Amino acid sequence: MGHATRGGRGGGLVFRGAAQTFGQGGYHGVLAQPTARGFGSESVLRSEISTGSVLLYSRTVRLVKRFGGYAPWDHNSLRTGVQTWRSPAGLAKGESGHAFDTMRRTSFLETNRSEESEETEAEGEFEWQTDVEDLYLASVDYGHRFAANKTSELRGKAAARRLSETATKADSATELFGFSKQGMMNLQVKGLLDGTSLELDIQMGLGPFQSPARRIPLLDLRQQLEAALQGLPFISQSSRDKALGTLNHFAVVDTRSFEGLRLKPGSTVALHSTVHNRFVVMNDHKMFGGIHRNPDPFRPSMTWERFTVVDAGNGQIALHSARWNRFARTGGGVSPLQAASRLPPAHAWGGERFTVVVDAARSQIALHSNNAFLQMTPDGNIQNTEHMNIHDLPDSNTWERFGVLQVEAYLEPGDTVALHNAVHNRFLRMNANGIMDRSDVLNWNALNGGYTSERFTVVDAQDGQVALHSAVHNRFVKMDGGHMSGSAHKAADALPPKSESTSERFAVVPAMHGDENVIALHSTIHNRFISMTPNGVTAYVVNAHELPDGATWERFRVVKL
Q1: Does a cis peptide bond (omega within 30 degrees of 0) precede residue 88?
Q2: Structural domains of the chain, ranges and CATH numbers in brackets
Q3: pLDDT at position 194, please?
């Protein structure tokens, strides 16, 4: 699989895994044991991915092995001595032979496996540290002549931030390289890093028809380094387990500790106060702390705790409640009724805009607006602090700090779904003529592969909205007044910008009873909900926040396919 060689400074050991490669590139891992330091020793784990001669990903983790709580030190801890040129002829007065003391190699190799060594290690303090400055992330696009064009290159904190932002998406993979060939027959190939798994994403098409994308696993960084660590006798089993655990969770844990907690526009989040063990909750007239509740499990029925992150410009965000169709406001208030896609300009609505301040050490954030921070008191009241500059939040202040829980959206971009109406026991469907209608009578869990007109791909329409695309008919679901139809023929990635067309965009309004994923789809531009009647599919005028509890025609169960 690979080999270990001795070399480099400090007697480093280099492992190069060559079991799997792609193109003329591949993966290799490096594990080095530098010379001992004064109060411990340090090992380095380095993972690298490259294609051809182009480095795409590099990450270093350092293991600092410190002594236990009691490490006595006095003058007897040092064995001092001097040597002169006469030493080979015999020790002179005042000289020492300590420098010539030897240790059998077998004894050295056995030391780390001994019971005493394991007990000592268990008592010691171990700390894995990710070297942020050594983090590297790049993306390469191969043109039709297979010339490598580096489209992105990030180092250090910028690379960590990018990995963290990607982790908030429905598809948390980071694209490292890509190739596409357009024409009557088209091909798209991507190299993706999903956590520690390197994967190849392939999609083919013929004319307007596209095959589903398929992912092929190439290698797992964790498995590669696990094989390398097994061959290194100076690393104990417990140290291996800790190293592999850190590597395995790097993409979703480590990167978030580096400025990685920015709230990504379009994502759905919940804010949890760790010190008070409460979620931030919104109703139709204020924000407050909910009942004492741990972050997990987070249920679909928790609609008051959900916020859609909206890009407010100038590096700021706004938080929108789909349940109440209102924005969070500084001081614990809420805005007047307003769709997520229609945030007024800053000079009119400044209190709905927040700057996110990241507390990397705690993996928490604080929200700053109008020269004050939002805070939750022990009794669950949400209010502003006194005037405080954005850089002046004391480390000891905990009421202003919130954990960010990434919540699965009711309709996740990229998912293929069907929408079932319980009262009619039918699915929403786009027929061959591009008209929205109903399926035959069919239970929600009885949809099989032959039903293609009932399947829709969820497309991110920005500002917390979605569009629904029918792959078999190559059209988007469209509302035109009270008429529901399909758009002109368009690929899923060809949704027109908001400035050109808004009729394909819908706000997702939670409408469940219990924990079933039941939603309603509201068109902001037409102020109507999609409705399935006994005769077909239409749209009725209803404000987004005023859907009656008894309105069953507008409620659809999300069936993920």
Answers
A1: no
A2: 2-66+130-256 (no CATH), 263-406 (2.80.10.50), 416-560 (2.80.10.50)
A3: 80
